[in-house]
């Protein structure tokens, strides 16, 4: 069982940066794929970024290289660095985890709000 807690959200002006953190507990995430998703008001939850248990990364095409996901296995932490933020990045951001052998993300955090003012 992996328990995830996000932090680092807040209000930022367009063009600014934020770094989200995801603290995992209950089990090591070394053999887990970790990801960030987001859900904007009135929209479905969408994929943002993923880092595999082997360290490979994948990003949503719409991000245009502005975000970066990183993992620190020793501390059981996952990060999402968000640069050049736009109003359309406003959403609740969720951290998710799954064992590398699974297809569906099985563990989710409670989310952290990111609001970008234009």
What report would you give on this structure?
The chain has 118 residues and is mainly beta. Helices cover 0% and strands 53% of the residues. It has no helices and eleven strands. The strands form two sheets. Strands 2, 4, 5, 6, 9, 10 and 11 form a seven-stranded mixed β-sheet that branches. The model has no long low-confidence stretch (mean pLDDT 96).
List the helices and strands and how they pair.
Elements (H helix, E strand, L loop, with lengths): L2 E5 L2 E4 L4 E8 L6 E8 L6 E6 L5 E3 L7 E6 L4 E6 L8 E9 L7 E2 L3 E6 L1
Parallel strand pairs: 2-11
Antiparallel strand pairs: 1-3, 3-8, 4-5, 4-9, 5-6, 7-8, 9-10, 9-11
Any idea what the radius of gyration is? 13 Å
Helical percent range? under 10%
Provide a count of the helices: 0
Mean residue pLDDT: 96
Poorly predicted spans: none
Distance between the termini: 40 Å
What are the key terms here?
single chain; 118 residues; mainly beta; 7-stranded mixed β-sheet; 0% helix; 53% strand
Short description:
With 118 residues, the chain is mainly β. 0% of the residues lie in helices and 53% in strands. Strand 4 and strand 5 form a beta hairpin.
